[in-house]
Amino acid sequence: xxxxxxxxxxxxxxxxxxxxxxxxxxxxxxxxxxxxxxxxxxxxxxxxxxxxxxxxxxxxxxxxxxxxxxxxxxxxxxxxxxxxxxxxxxxxxxxxxxxxxxxxxxxxxxxxxxxxxxxxxxxxxxxxxxxxxxxxxxxxxxxxxxxxxxxxxxxxxxxxxxxxxxxxxxxxxxxxxxxxxxxxxxxxxx
Length: 190
What we know:
8% helix, two-stranded antiparallel ribbon, globular, signal, mainly beta, Cyclophilin
């Protein structure tokens, strides 16, 4: 399964991403349009070049447009990017959302020392560390237990307040979301 399989331990405090300064360029910026406004993600090809390249290719091809936030857990993260089963254009398939990827190959892990903090964008994967493909998640709060075990691809630098407004999922069902919010459009650049 291509879902992020984690148990939440304790409460997570809110913090600001402190994962090192990176010169921002439009080539390494992703803009996600949500119902409440835009979100700008600074991508990190310096720590995850293969993952960033794949995300940029999928965004440029329009693959992320209208894809659902299929798993959203309060105080933890919002997961999206299942272009196979989470596509609102093709008819969202809630029973399969989170199990799909894209037509591109899975990627080898690119773990780094960049911590998972509020606003961090990481790649979702199955239990196989080398299974990330198209799905990613955005942290609502720090998640130190993810450090060094999931690939960090960037951080939200604008619009985190719009991420905070994404419809939450059902805690009893691992954060699965009924009638989910979606990424209206995703483009490379600002």
